[in-house]
Amino acid sequence: MNRVELEGVIGHELAHVADRDILVGTVVGRSSAPRSCCPSSSCAPGSGGSAAAGSDSKGGPVALVFLAVGLVMLVLAPIVGQVIKMAVSRNREYLADVQGAMYTRYPPGLISALRKIQAASGVPMHSANNATAHLWLNQPSRIQGEGMGPVEKLFRPPPIEERIRRLEEM
User: Fold this and answer.
1) What is the mean predicted confidence (pLDDT) over 37-47?
2) Of the listed 5, 7, 13, 168, which one is catalytic?
3) Would you list the domain boundaries of the chain?
4) Which parts of 19-136 fold into alpha helices (H)?
5) CB atoms within 10 A of CB 143
6) What is the pLDDT of residue 100?
7) Which residues of 24-47 are buried (b: 16+ CB within 10 A; e: fewer)?
8) Nearest 5 degrees, angle CA 46-CA 50-CA 53?
9) Would you say 82 and 154 are in contact if contact means Cβ atoms under 8 Å apart?
10) What residues have CB less than 8 Å from 147, skipping those under 6 apart?
11) Distance from the CA of 146 to the CA of which of 44, 82, 120, 159 falls in 20 to 30 A?
12) Segment 44-97, tens digit of pLDDT
């Protein structure tokens, strides 16, 4: 990218920071990985770890409460993560585009950068993780020509063509 395009992209990203979109993205990424809350096997029932703390050797009601809460959290964490992904709507990208163009006072710089990104988007990423797919411009594991399911369409970022069109209208 040349300097003007880079300024447009940096303005776009700074708009995300100003709107705290990065914080929300971090929370979403963290909630998509519920097993990271208990990285060792010490939380497993019967292992004598923290889940059995404060109970007698037979487990007792305290261990059952911890087990029930842990199972509920294990089921609800990915669902909550998906709901948060839906709450961070496509309009956040459009808003960041407009704010980035206002920061630089030159929308054609970001438009040119988006066109370059669009031209390079046909190459699938081989080392991408689906837990961080919401942070990418396009679905990172998408193979060119592969169909997209209805649920996946809810979470994908806005089409670059639409973002370019809106910036051109400024």
Assistant:
1) 49
2) 13
3) 3-41+73-168
4) 21-31, 60-87, 91-104, 107-119
5) 8
6) 93
7) bbeebbebbebeeebeeeebeeee
8) 80
9) no
10) none
11) 82
12) 555 554 444 444 556 688 888 989 998 998 888 777 777 766 666 677 888 999
- d(CA 19, CA 103) in angstroms, rounded, equals 14
Judge contact between 5 and 109, C-beta under 8 A: yes
Average pLDDT score over residue span 98-114: 94
Residue 128 in this model has a pLDDT that exceeds 90? no
Length in residues, the chain:
170
Angle at 143 between CA 146 and CA 82, to 5 degrees: 80
Distance of CA 40 to the CA centre of its chain: 25
d(CA 101, CA 108): 8
Q: The tokens 């060119």 sit on which residue?
A: 144
Q: Which residues have CB under 8 Å from 68's CB, separation 6+?
A: none
**Residues contacting residue 76 through CB under 8 Å, at least 6 positions apart:** none
Please report the pLDDT score of residue 39 as a whole number.
47
